[in-house]
Design goal:
- The complex is a heterotrimer of chains A (382), B (314) and C (274).
- Chain A is mostly helical.
- Chain A has 17 helices and no strands.
- The two termini of chain A are 53 Å apart.
- Chain B is mainly alpha-helical and 314 residues long.
- Chain C has a domain of 177 residues: P-loop containing nucleotide triphosphate hydrolases (Rossmann fold), CATH 3.40.50.
- In chain C, helix 4 crosses helix 5 and helix 5 packs across helix 7.
- Chain C is globular and about 55 Å long.
- The chains are: A mainly alpha (382), B mainly alpha (314), C alpha/beta (274).
- Chains B and C meet through loops of B and strand 1 and helix 3 of C.
């Protein structure tokens, strides 16, 4: 009879199952692709191969033969494919236009020390620089203009500010609602409150941004009386609102999943509903609650439209919560359209994207680790 | 026979913390609902005046900040086309991946854990990074190479287009579909699979003939949720296909398109007179919300019916 | 065991509630207690008296209402929506359904041990300390003292005294259940309600729990719901037999099992149905 043990598939099925396996690689492949293709556009900045200075060393077209091909390609700022496609005459023409461009630079800039600064170098990207016309060294991100000023710090701080405000608002609010809905509310109320809050998740972030712009900004300014109508605070609160449904549903799920026997035991000992919820159920749900907060953080730091519309978009460094600010995400969104493809601005925006990707990747990784640990402690494995 | 006495338990000792706790959590819940009501309310109240049949069915003129020339038909079409094309890509990949995970994968193996980690990570990637990916991979790599292969004279594939925007969104919503499909596959009683195998069916036959048909409602729900989520996203399509203005409706996959979400953004930030544009803005938001909410409602109803059917044992 | 109990007389013991001749006072007394889950009636006009500091067992087939009645005594049924109660129940002379009653105080005096052990995901020490802190004990050494006393009282001290601060979830099933008993008696209730406390345990653990119950009755009134008739026979002084929401017979355990007054009781205890 030849009955073999195990799973024997016929040829067509064998192919189909291999196909299924291949498709399962899709998510891993995508993550790798994102890493590679977003990172690759940013690599030249990382390796110092870009130069944003206004005044750069010029090689006259006549001296084209003194340069090795690789040096020529870098001098002209071409990618390998572009370089390969061009013939000698085109290359000479490019060099000539470079010379002309250099000659066109107004006299005033030639003696300007700022004009020779290549701000895509790491020491300028991360540390303050004394620019002409300012009292002291500043962190400035100002890509537009004859002299390009790049610095990542104002954008980091901007993202951090709005994320922090968002979480400080969203976490207590969502947790409070989750505790209420999961442990304290009578069944009739829970029936429509839970879907109601989850309805908030159906509001696209661009709508939330508009709501912040037209309504929230005015209201908050009237209550708190600060100077700029659109700032980190407004954007942060709106950001928090987009994170609320996410944190709420995961935390509520975690709380409801705590075995009812725990709260029954607490109640039988004479605890009130609130005491049972706060002292027994919430600690038992900690891994899930923590996961909710981690996801909320990821949502806030990666959110674009809300910050783009409601934060004021001033790309200067300020620690004040009530100043207009600019996040990494909004910078990419707002400036990519004007960036020359392959140019230093373009590459820096991709660098910002790579950093964002890295941040969420690392957050997820450590978040998972901590959640695993917390679960272990609860189950007595620690 | 005298009753033994117990210390009386009549004095109601109110625990102040219990009351406070109830008040605070109840308050936060109410606050969330209130904000939701304000948002929805203001959209409806301020958007209805500009909302008309003409508004949703004609193509606007270039100066769409004015009430007379504002309309959203191309945006509705653009949004709809891009989510439909996205569905074509995301459903097969997502469903098959989920089938692998539930039916074939060894739950404890390293490979499975890596896939799950990848799904979690994918779900957490910022939406603007997807936009960059669409630009750097789909447009600049695949698109440009396609142009080279087909010997196109000008950039045809190597530029923003509906196709690339849809693919970008497909990658973004992949986790949604995978998770929803997995849930519905897991909800099927293992007894059903065992019965099929015991009759001599192969694993693949069992999946195709028994498991998938039963999981269909859940899979549909996942698809609808993915659509609803993608319809409202703007960041991923900023550089991959959304256009500020197009005189015609998009006809080919390589065309750019106008989009509801992007239009909202434009109206909000680039209007010369926000007072004048405000009703149009709210009306556009109303259209977008009607779209996403009705999709969500359909998904919820399908899911509820599915749960009912399962409980009743079909 | 009750000391001087004259030979039980035949009169229908369900009429007066307390088996005639019982000298100890009744600490729990119900009068025509009925309970409805929505439209269906789970308890039908139950009237009985439970004597103090003895073990009373509730027996009967599944669904007969014995657990439901038990949960009335500490008003855990309040947690289920759609429950309606009529009739009276008095504990220690006070009506527990009166609107002035503070349920939390009631539960301090009437403790409960559940069918499946449910220790909190905390350390052994903190499991017991929880109830104490809940009701106002703050002093650390006082708490530690009571923790030790309760664990000794639950015959668990020797087994866990060296790992009081380890997670309670690391204990075996039987140990967890004894921990739950320790947790319940730590706050010194007068009555201990036990809902099939040994049904999820192996025979040896069951034996330990049963021995424990026999010791505990010196200090507490115990009402135990059990599926296991031999268990009821072994450890209880009085037994009440329920069937589909009605109290059929309530008398000395010895009588219920050797010479029951009602035919239904006889059919059940001899295993003709179950």
């Amino acid at each position: 009879m030849g009955l073999k043990r195990g799973h024997q598939a016929r040829p067509a099925e064998w192919i189909a199952e291999k196909l299924i396996f291949a498709v399962s690689l899709s998510t891993i492949t995508v993550i790798l692709l994102i890493f590679v293709f977003v990172g690759r556009e940013a690599l030249p900045v990382v390796f110092g191969k870009t130069n944003s200075a206004l005044i750069q060393k010029i090689v006259p077209a006549a001296e084209i033969n003194t340069l090795k091909p690789e040096e020529l390609r870098e001098y002209l700022g071409l990618t390998r494919e572009q370089f390969r496609e061009m013939d000698r005459d085109t290359l000479i023409a490019l060099m000539e236009s470079r010379e002309e461009g250099n000659n066109d630079i107004p006299e005033a800039f030639r003696t300007d020390p700022d004009a020779q600064v290549d701000t895509t170098e790491w020491r300028y990207l991360l540390r303050p620089h004394q620019w002409k016309g300012y009292d002291q060294p500043e962190y400035i991100w100002q890509p537009v203009g004859t002299i390009h000023k790049y610095n990542l710090i104002p954008l980091f701080v901007g993202s951090l500010k709005v994320t922090l405000i968002g979480l400080l608002f969203a976490v207590p609010v969502s947790l409070g609602a989750a505790i209420y809905v999961s442990q304290l509310a009578p069944a009739r109320i829970r029936e429509w409150v839970k879907p109601g809050i989850e309805l908030l998740a159906g509001i696209p972030s661009v709508v939330m941004g508009v709501f912040a712009l037209l309504f929230l900004a005015t209201v908050l300014q009237r209550i708190f009386g600060y100077q700029y109508r659109l700032n980190a605070f407004v954007a942060g609160i709106a950001l928090g609102l987009t994170a609320v449904p996410l944190i709420f549903s995961i935390a509520e799920d975690a709380l409801t999943s705590v075995p009812r026997s725990y709260s029954q035991a607490a109640l039988a000992l004479g605890a009130s509903q609130w005491q049972a919820a706060w002292q027994i159920v919430l600690p038992a749900a900690l891994p899930g609650v923590f996961a909710a907060v981690v996801l909320g953080f990821g949502r806030c730091i990666g959110e674009t439209m809300v910050v783009l519309i409601a934060s004021g978009n001033a790309s200067t460094l300020s620690w004040s919560l009530f100043d207009s600010t600019r996040s990494m995400t909004a910078t990419i969104a707002a400036e990519m359209a004007e960036a020359v493809s392959g140019g230093h601005h373009y590459r820096l925006l991709f660098l910002l994207g790579t950093l964002l990707f890295a941040v969420t990747f690392i957050t997820n990784f450590f978040g998972d680790l901590i959640i695993h640990r917390l679960k272990g402690k609860l189950e007595g494995r620690a | 026979m005298t009753s033994p006495s117990l210390a009386p338990f009549h004095r109601k000792q109110r625990d102040p913390f219990a009351l406070l706790g109830l008040a605070v959590t109840g308050f936060t819940t109410a606050m969330i609902l209130l904000i939701l009501a304000v948002i929805l309310g203001s959209v409806v109240v301020q958007g209805l005046p500009a909302f008309s049949w003409r508004f949703v069915s004609t193509i606007p003129k270039k100066d769409f900040f004015n009430l007379e020339s504002a309309a959203v038909l191309p945006m509705i079409v653009g949004t709809t086309i891009r989510v439909l094309v996205m569905t074509v890509f995301v459903m097969p990949i997502g469903v098959i991946t989920a089938i692998y995970l539930t039916e074939y994968a060894n739950a404890a193996s390293l490979y499975t854990r890596i896939i799950r980690a990848a799904i979690n990570n994918l779900a957490g990637v910022p939406s603007i990074v997807f936009g960059l990916f669409g630009l750097g991979f789909f447009i600049n790599f695949i698109g440009k190479n396609l142009d080279d292969l087909t010997g196109a004279t000008g950039p045809s594939f190597g530029q923003p287009a509906v196709l690339w925007a849809s693919l970008t969104l497909a990658i973004m919503t992949l986790p949604v579909v995978i998770v929803a499909t997995e849930e519905s596959l897991k909800a099927i009683a293992p007894g059903l699979r065992e019965a099929s195998l015991a009759l001599g069916a192969t694993k693949l036959q069992t999946i195709l003939r028994i498991v998938l048909p039963n999981a269909l409602p859940g899979i549909l729900t996942g698809g609808i949720l993915a659509i609803s989520r993608a319809a409202g996203e703007v960041a991923p399509i900023l550089f991959t296909g959304a256009a500020y203005y197009m005189a015609d409706l998009p006809k080919r996959l390589t065309d750019q398109f106008m989009d509801l979400g992007y239009h909202i953004y434009v109206l909000a930030t680039q209007s010369p007179n926000i007072e004048q544009t405000s009703p149009i803005l709210y009306a556009t938001v109303l259209v977008l919300l009607l779209l996403t909410f009705s999709l969500n409602a359909v998904a919820i109803i399908v899911r509820a019916r599915m749960r009912q059917a399962m409980r009743a044992g079909h | 065991m009750a000391t001087s109990v004259p030979a039980p007389v035949a009169p229908d013991s369900t009429e007066s509630g307390l088996p005639s001749g019982e000298s100890r006072p009744a600490i729990i007394e119900t009068q025509d207690l009925s309970l409805y889950y929505g439209a269906s009636q789970a308890l039908k006009s139950i009237s009985l008296k439970i004597p103090e500091k003895l073990v009373t067992a509730f027996i009967g087939p599944s669904g007969c209402g014995k657990s439901t009645l038990l949960r009335c005594f500490n008003r855990m049924n309040d947690l289920i929506s759609g429950v309606r109660i009529s009739g009276n129940c008095q504990i220690g002379g006070h009506n527990i359904f009166s609107p002035e009653v503070d349920v939390i105080e009631l539960r301090k005096r009437v403790g409960m041990v559940f069918q499946r052990s449910n220790p909190f995901p905390k350390s052994i020490h903190d499991n017991i300390a929880y109830g104490l802190r809940l009701h106002g004990t703050r002093n650390r050494s006082e708490i530690s003292g009571i923790v030790e006393k309760s664990l000794r009282g639950a015959a668990l001290w020797d087994e866990v005294k060296d790992r009081l601060h380890e997670s309670a979830l690391g204990l075996s099933g039987g140990q967890q259940q004894r921990l739950c008993i320790a947790r319940a008696i730590a706050i010194q209730p007068q009555i201990l309600l036990m809902d099939e406390p040994a049904s999820a345990l192996d025979p040896i653990a069951t034996m330990k729990v049963e021995e424990l119950i026999l010791e505990l009755k010196q200090d507490f009134t115990i009402v135990i719901v059990t599926h296991n008739m031999q268990q009821a026979n072994r450890i209880s002084d009085y037994t009440a037999f329920f069937y589909i929401g009605e109290l059929i017979e309530h008398d000395l355990t010895a009588k219920i099992f050797t010479n029951p007054a009602k035919k239904q009781t006889e059919d059940y205890v001899t295993g003709r149905f179950g």
